[in-house]
Amino acid sequence: MGSVQIVTTVLAAAVTAVAAWLAVRAVLRMVAVVRLGQPDPERFTDPATRTRTMLAETAGHTRMLRWSVVGAAHWFVMVAFVVLSLLVLEAYFEVVTPGGGLPLIGGWVVYGLVTEVIGVLGLAGILVLIAIRLRNRPGNPERRSRFTGSTMWQGYFVEAVVLAVLVCGFLIRGFKVATGHFEFPAWATPVSHAVGAVLPDWDAGVSVVALVKIAISMTWVIVIALNVTMGVAWHRFAAFFNIYFKRNPGRRGSGLGALRPMMSAGKPLDFEEADPETDQFGVGQVEQFTWKGLLDFTTCTECGRCQSQCPAWNTGKPLSPKLLVLSLRDHAYAKAPYLLAGGGKDLTGEEKATAAQLAHMDVLALAEADRPLIGGAAEGGVIDPDVLWSCTTCGACVEQCPVDIEHVDHIVDMRRYQVMIESSFPSEAGVMLRNLENKGNPWGAPQNTREDWTKGLDFEVPRVGEVDDFEYLLWVGCAGAFEDRAKKTTQAVATLLHQAEVNFAILGEGETCTGDPARRIGNEFVFQMLAQQNVETLNEAFGDRERAKRRIVATCPHCFNTLANEYGQLGGEFEVVHHTQLLAHLVATGRLTPVKPVDGGVTYHDPCYLGRHNRIFSPPREVLGSAVAGTGTPTADGLVEMPRNSERSFCCGAGGARMWMEERIGKRINVERVEEAIATGAKTIAVGCPFCKTMLTDGVTGKGVADDVEVVDVATVLLRSVKPEPQTRPEPAATGS
Question: What is the value of pTM for the model shown?
Answer without folding.
Answer: 0.92
